[in-house]
Specification:
Blueprint (H helix, E strand, L loop, with lengths): L1 E9 L2 E8 L5 E6 L9 H12 L3 E6 L15 H15 L5 E7 L1 H7 L8 E5 L6 H4 L3 E3 L4 E6 L2 E5 L1 H9 L13 E6 L5 H10 L4 E6 L11 H13 L1
Helix pairs in contact: 1-7, 2-3
C-alpha cells in the first residue's frame, strides 16, 4: 500500500513523496539525482523490492511542479541535503532504523547531510564532481540564471548552485561523514574509478561493489535487481 505524503520544509515549502508499506519497522529513503524525480524506475521498482524484504520506502521529489514545492533553479545541493535531513527527522519516530540511498547527484546530497541521522548510507553510481555537469551551463543575463542543455533536457539553475558546484570538492566530504556507507558503481558506466576513489576516502565501516553490465541509470536487463540486492546485503 502506498500513501502520498507532504512534508513541511519551512518558509511555506513542502516535499512531496510516496511512502510504501508504513507498517514495517525499517525505512529506506531514496534521493534522486540532477533533473530526476521520485518515480524513476530504480525508485519505483526499488520500493517493491524492499517491501518484499520487510523494508518500508519513501521516495520524494527534491523539486516539483506544485506551487509550494521547491524549484530546481532556486535550489542548491546544500539545500537538498537540508531537506533530506528534514525528511529523515519526519520519520524518526515512526521507524527504528532509517537507511538512505542516493543516486548520482543524490549521492552528493547524502554526503552533505549535516545531521547524518540515518543508520546507513548507500550511494548508487554517485557523481564525483558536480562541476562536470553544471559547469557547462551558460549564463543568461535576461533571466539571471544559468541555462543547461544536457541529455536532451534543457533546464536552468541559479547562481548559487552554479557557484557552489564549481567549488565543491566531493571527496573531502568524507572526512566529516561518519555513517556506515556502501558505494555501488555501474560497471559499464564512466564513474567506476571515481567510485573507487570515494571508497578509499570513506571512513569505516564501508563497502564497495560493481554491478556488471550496468550504465548510470541501471537500465539494462537485470541490473537494477543486482543494485537492489547489493543494497539489501549492506543494510539487512
Amino acid at each position: 500500500m502506498e500513501e502520498d505524503i507532504k512534508i513541511p520544509l519551512g518558509q511555506g515549502k513542502f516535499a512531496y513523496g510516496t511512502l510504501r508499506t508504513k507498517s514495517i519497522s525499517s525505512l529506506i529513503i531514496f534521493v534522486h539525482g540532477f533533473t530526476g524525480h521520485k518515480n524513476e524506475h530504480i525508485f519505483f521498482n526499488g520500493a517493491r523490492f524492499f517491501e518484499k524484504h520487510n523494508l518500508a520506502s519513501f521516495r520524494f521529489d527534491l523539486y516539483a511542479e506544485a506551487k509550494d514545492a521547491r524549484k530546481l533553479n532556486d535550489s542548491t545541493l546544500t539545500l537538498h541535503a537540508k531537506d533530506l535531513d528534514t525528511v529523515v527527522d519526519y520519520f524518526k519516530k515512526r521507524y527504528a532504523k532509517i537507511f538512505v540511498a542516493g543516486h548520482s547527484f543524490g549521492g552528493i546530497t547524502v554526503l552533505l547531510s549535516q545531521k547524518q541521522a540515518f543508520n546507513k548510507a548507500i550511494l548508487w553510481d554517485p557523481s564525483p564532481n558536480p562541476k562536470e555537469i553544471t559547469g557547462k551551463a551558460r549564463y543568461l543575463k535576461e533571466i539571471d540564471k544559468y541555462y543547461l542543455n544536457e541529455w536532451g533536457v534543457a533546464t536552468t539553475i541559479g547562481k548559487e548552485m552554479f557557484e557552489q558546484n564549481n567549488s565543491l570538492n566531493t571527496h573531502k566530504l568524507f572526512k566529516n561523514f561518519h555513517v556506515p556507507i556502501k558505494i555501488i558503481a555501474a560497471g559499464n558506466g564512466i564513474l567506476v574509478d571515481s567510485g573507487k576513489k570515494y571508497f578509499e576516502n570513506a571512513n569505516k565501516p564501508k563497502s564497495f561493489a560493481i554491478v556488471n553490465n550496468a550504465t548510470h541509470c541501471f537500465d539494462e536487463d537485470g541490473t537494477e535487481e543486482k543494485l537492489f540486492q547489493e543494497t539489501y546485503d549492506w543494510i539487512k
